[in-house]
Design goal:
Strand order of the largest sheet: 2-1-3
CATH architecture: Roll
Number of strands: 3
Helix content: 10-25%
Shape: elongated
CATH topology: Ubiquitin-like (UB roll)
CATH class: Alpha Beta
Length: about 120
């Protein structure tokens, strides 16, 4: 292919995609990928949506264009939707906890008076 017909789009040039040919074959199914975005180093990745792509690398390219084009982004994950495993709604009792959680409160320990003193001094 001559340099004159070469695409100037950096996404196509970088991936060395064939020019003038569709990357989607007839009757080809693209998978769904869930996209997680990190806005700032040290923050959690958050689910922002999903994209359809033939493979993970293209899913990253599509996700970048769709979800990181305008906003701040320092990192991004894509995960095949079919690879996500979740509990069934019928298993919700698995997350039930005992309502009595006094062991988490400082009042159950003998140092409660010292803690109260410290809190009063801080005011």
């Amino acid at each position: 292919m001559s340099d004159q017909n070469k695409s100037l789009d950096p996404r196509i040039a970088r991936l060395e995609l064939p020019q003038g040919e569709s990357i989607v074959k007839p009757d080809e199914y693209w998978g769904t990928f869930e996209v997680f975005l990190q806005e700032k180093r040290g923050k959690f990745h958050q689910h922002v949506g999903s994209v359809h792509a033939p493979e993970q690398e293209m899913a990253l390219v599509f996700a970048k264009e769709q979800y990181a084009r305008r906003g701040k982004c320092v990192n991004m994950w894509v995960v095949k939707t079919t690879d996500i495993f979740a509990f069934q709604l019928a298993d919700e009792d698995m997350f039930a906890t005992t309502p009595d959680k006094q062991h988490r409160e400082a009042g159950m320990y003998k140092v409660r008076d010292r803690i109260q003193e410290y809190q009063n001094r801080q005011k």
